[in-house]
Write a structure and sequence with these properties.
The structure is a homodimer.
Chain A (H helix, E strand, L loop, with lengths): L10 E7 L9 E4 L3 E10 L5 E9 L6 E4 L1 E4 L2 E7 L4 E11 L1 H14 L5 H16 L3 H15 L6 H8 L2 H9 L7 E2 L4 E6 L6 E5 L15 H14 L3 E4 L47 H13 L3 E6 L2 E2 L4 H5 L15 E3 L2 E3 L3 E2 L7 H17 L4 E4 L7 H14 L4 E4 L5 H9 L4 E2 L9 H13 L2 H4 L3 E2 L9 H21 L2 E5 H5 L33 H13 L9 E6 L4 E7 L6 E7 L6 E6 L2 H4 L6 E6 L5 E5 L2 E6 L6 E8 L12
Parallel strand pairs in A: 2-10, 11-12, 11-22, 12-13, 13-18, 18-19, 19-20, 21-22
Antiparallel strand pairs in A: 1-3, 3-7, 4-5, 4-8, 6-7, 8-9, 8-10, 14-17, 15-16, 23-24, 23-26, 24-25, 25-30, 26-29, 27-28, 27-30
Chain lengths: 666, 666
């Protein structure tokens, strides 16, 4: 700030929140959500201040304003609601409000029975100055008022004093404040506004080539089309496919990641590119581009979005290797550098060289891939290993795509170092994978979800919780059997407004790993086509369906904003609640984390947080089993049997005062 | 950042600390201190990184660099020492280090017994590229090395591999890194470097007109000159005077702030300005400007700085009122607006109007006052009520003065709202008054000093602890008698590297307030000349002298950097330690906060923090009483009698291993 120019701006604005890294990165909201902004606002001395929160949609030049209110200790708060997709700007403005100070002081003087005749003239002067800046009726009213309070013989002083405190006039003054010396917060902050699916959704991952009920050896988009109603019935919002592009044959991996591939083995969908095309082509055995577009439309009609996997890497057979050798690193022997994690070598994968001289050309081509699939109707992308690609590429690419298509959603597959994972979210990814798969104990889950929901992380990082993926079969699932799958399903679906399953393997509780201490599936679907029998005994289809229905019927589970943990005197039982902002929907989830034993304990609810009066009984209605219990007070007994259902998802129903009603729980 | 231009900069730098409000404000250090800088530094992928901390004195165009090291979880740390007064800039730079990656990978490949012949050629290529950017001997060495490792028949591979890992060559490569795509931290940060007195000093406040031992009714600078040796002997570094300017007579306040002033009453020194002059003049009864300059020089010779009080306010008789009526607010009746806190009126004080049209002229004049006193030799200023003057004025004024006179120190009298108090520190005040006077219980003291020393506050806010001032006689002192004064003295002098006393009243344990629930002294020196008899029985002169000597002899007490609180099982006893960075000087202070009763309890020391091995006995040497105790282990008994001394200031002396030495404690 050039102090010598701004010497008369007396107000300081500090510690604005939310503000990510000093405004370097935007915060995130979905349509209809509030942005609540707080800041330290103060000036020298003891004058009264006024402050406004300014906001505008990025496509509008005009600022709207909402007033901010003091919370005590110089902290102020204001809010606005984001009504349109895209992005908004927000900032703050505050000023010394001489009229407000004058009015406060006048009240004190009156109370002390001082002569206020000179003060009334001082007030009238402020009102006249305001009238001079104002037009029309307001100006007339103010002028008349100024005259009224400042002129007249001493006998009229009591009436004039009364009139000076007129609320309507104070309102008129507040409407036309003197903001010549207002301080504007130095940063113009940004909030990216996305569709509700960015916050709330259930994802189902499947390999279309293994689509159940298919007619031929290799599943097709048409098979998936026939399968769609089942996915819809289970209550999923997104159907996500691993890469659907032609698969290379050079160094193709066989079953169980065998470096030797036997003839006829299909290869990994992540080995992208062959003579038949690259990232803008479809693996011929899956069908045609037309089939794909049709599937996308069919899905949308059933409220299912098809999500594509974006993996920026190439098989040695990818057309880019031939057409753009400059986008790859060369080894001293002239060959192209394959992927490595020394001493491991991945000769079937060529990474793109983001440090190459033609990085601009590379960036444009990669973006054109996204544009291509958006043209085909895709609105949801899952990005493979974004943490191994240039960081600012993502910021640029996501910004460009979002500028043209603000409705498009990107899920980042970033199982990586925490700071890098968070930066990818700041750079524009809508959602992210995260450490949920490896948070299994009560302490681990509590700490992690407090970090995600109670720190500034909540402003830019949206977790999508996956108990399993084709790459991740956790030890907890390997050794916990069916109860472990139920537990992790309930945790994912109730702790996270967004969650996903690697579907068929999860429905069937597949839990054999390739080897001890590995999280790879035995006979992984990544390298072979699977024949899933989804009607197999013990499948979790009904439970998943029920859980998804509970999520759709209870808005509390559709956001992570009001997550509270409650105490249980048993380390194997975790309890937490979610509530809507007005607490008109409250869900209490209690989960037995021990897949092997019945566990019980005493739950100590924070009734305050739940909006329950300690004196009144309340009903807890287990939406999984349908059972209802009448509870009273904070301390309640819970027992959960993993052999049956290791969790309860209680809807809390508060008592209605009139007991004459039969159904008196709300 | 323009991403499209910086696409190849792969490293992100985040969460830099210290960095106050995104670099908006500088941090503070004194000469010889270290600046330890940490940041999150990471890139996409798995390549090795290198990072440097860059720093330069503001008057130098050339950056120096010191290497940063990883601490784990992508956190890096580096440091530099500030050797010159003034200000330094610092920032960070980090880059992907391909040679480091190559070398790490080579080691893994060798361990896995892979053929590395192509890898050696890849390494040689990196070395050759470096040689091409380099001159002289280094370039020759690198070229020879590249040739050596990359050429030769297969039989020489083991020797060449060995040679490739040569440390000297790796050092040479680190000396010439490829920093084309280095990321520079966006902000250039600032550290203000001040003299040691900014961190460590004991202040003594006195009214020169009440100087003990004076010849006439009104004390003079000459009297103070005679008094200086006593102040020096007591161990004070700063002798601070309330305003020394001519005192106005209009609305002059009488004894005990009486609105009616009797003839001959001297008035308050804060009623500045009369026909005899304003802020650049000296109250005639104190002496001449020449006397004052002489006093400043005499003081400096005894290592005492004279501190002046800067109060930007005027008596109605101040020359500015006549010469610059535009710097004051007018009331509607044409009179000048006096100070008010409605319904209270302070008609003897005219505040300056920082919103006036000629604010630039006002700022310049105020700054010229500081410049004037600096010309007279003053190096230390205490600023009265800075929180009622324009904030950016301070930033500008302190910046300008410090630019020309970086050795000058400003103490802010900001007993105000915490955020405003901190902002004044950020804007450039060297030190600040604070809430110490009202923090009396163990919990209050512990919480407050943790806030001051363990949060980012420590980087910009230096507390100067005053148990009393002419305005503040706390209830604790009023009701606790002499033991309360001893307790607060020890707390101030050991919790704070800087502390101060309103001297005569403190030495004599003056504790009569004007009325109940008031912190004003009865017969306050602000409104009358006092005849202090400093030899009165019960005076604290010896204790103060001893405490100041302990502070000078123990570097641990000269900084607040390593303050630790220790547990005592008695709420009335507080225990804390301070240590030098290398723990070669450790002071443990134990204080009885109850001025009325003997208190005892068990102290549980954090031996780890104190650098003491639990197995070894250690000596605690009470520097107040001279007593020595042999302690063993964390748990030790303490008892403190307020009637004697309510505190112990222990120097910890660790055992030296050779027990043959008689004096085996260090």
């Amino acid at each position: 700030m050039d102090q010598i120019e701004h010497g008369r701006l007396r107000v300081a604005i500090e510690a604005v929140a939310p503000e990510i890294d000093g405004g370097r990165h935007p915060i995130k909201r979905v349509i209809g959500e509030k942005v609540v902004v707080e800041a330290d606002i103060f000036a020298d001395g003891h004058d009264a201040l006024s402050a406004v929160l300014k906001f505008r949609h990025a496509q509008s030049a005009d600022w709207s304003e909402s007033p901010m209110s003091p919370l005590g200790n110089d902290r102020w708060r204001g809010e606005f609601t984001v009504q349109r997709i895209g992005s908004y700007r927000y900032t703050l403005e505050a000023w010394v409000d001489h009229f407000k100070s004058w009015r406060n002081d006048l009240q004190k003087r009156i109370q002390a029975e001082q002569d206020v005749s000179v003060e009334l003239r001082a007030g009238a002067r402020l009102v006249e100055e305001t009238a001079a800046r104002t037009n029309g009726e307001d100006a007339q009213l103010l002028r008349a008022w100024a005259k009224e309070i400042s002129t007249g013989d001493p006998a009229t002083l009591p009436q004039r004093t009364q009139r000076a405190l007129d609320n309507a006039m104070a309102g008129l003054m507040a409407k036309h404040p003197d903001r010549r010396f207002a301080t504007r917060h130095a940063a113009e902050l940004c909030v990216v506004v996305e569709p509700v699916l960015a916050r709330f959704g259930a994802w189902y991952e499947m390999f279309p080539r293994s689509c159940p009920g298919r007619a031929t050896a290799h599943g097709t988009f048409k098979d998936v089309e026939a399968h769609l109603p089942r996915i819809a019935e289970m209550g999923f919002d997104v159907l996500y496919f691993p890469p659907i592009h032609p698969i290379g044959s050079a160094f193709r991996k066989g079953k169980n990641n065998n470096p030797l591939c036997r003839p006829g083995e299909p290869g990994s969908p992540w080995g992208i590119g062959s003579a038949e095309g690259g990232h803008k082509s479809i693996h011929p055995e899956l069908g045609t581009l037309k089939d794909f577009r049709r599937l996308v439309q069919k899905g949308r009609a059933m409220k299912i979005e098809i999500a594509l996997d974006i993996a920026w890497q190439c098989s040695p057979d990818h057309p880019w290797v031939r057409e753009h050798p400059e986008w790859f690193k060369k080894r001293p022997d002239g060959s192209i550098q394959y992927a490595e994690n020394p001493p491991k070598k991945y000769e079937d994968i060529y990474p793109l060289d983001f440090e190459c001289d033609d990085w601009r050309g590379l960036w444009q081509e990669l973006k054109s891939v996204i544009d291509f699939w958006i043209e085909q109707g895709v609105r949801v992308f899952r990005v493979d290993n974004p943490h191994t690609k240039a960081l600012w590429f993502w910021e640029w690419m996501l910004g460009e795509v979002r500028g043209a298509h603000p409705e498009v959603i990107f899920l980042s597959e970033a199982f990586t170092r925490p700071k890098l994972m968070y930066l990818l979210a700041k750079l524009g990814f809508t959602q992210s994978y995260n450490y949920f798969p490896w948070r299994n104990t009560k302490g681990e889950l509590t700490d992690y979800f407090k970090e995600l929901t109670r720190t500034s992380v909540r402003e830019f990082f949206r977790a999508n919780l996956w108990p399993n993926t084709p790459d991740i079969l956790t030890q907890y699932l390997q050794y916990g059997g069916r109860p472990a799958f139920m537990t992790r399903l309930v945790l994912a679906a109730t702790l996270g407004a967004s969650y996903g399953l690697y579907g068929p393997a999860f429905e069937l509780c597949v839990n054999k790993a390739r080897e001890i201490n590995s999280e790879e599936y035995l006979n992984s679907e990544k390298y072979e086509i699977k024949d899933w029998d989804l009607n197999q005994a013990g499948n979790l289809t009904d439970l998943i369906t029920r859980v998804n229905r509970i999520r759709r019927e209870n808005p509390a589970l559709q956001s992570n904003d009001h997550l509270e943990f409650h105490t249980v005197d048993n380390e194997q039982i975790i309890a937490y609640s979610k509530a809507t902002e007005k607490s008109d929907n409250v869900i209490l989830t209690v989960v037995n984390l021990d897949p092997h034993h019945v566990q019980n304990g005493w739950l100590a609810l924070s009734l305050d947080e739940l909006g329950i009066e300690p004196a009144n009984a309340f009903q807890v209605h287990d939406l999984l089993t349908g059972e209802r219990h009448l509870w009273h007070g904070a301390r309640n007994y819970v027992q959960l049997n993993p052999a049956f259902v290791p969790a309860a998802i209680f809807r809390l129903r508060r008592r209605i005062r009139t007991e004459r009603d039969f159904d008196y729980f709300l």
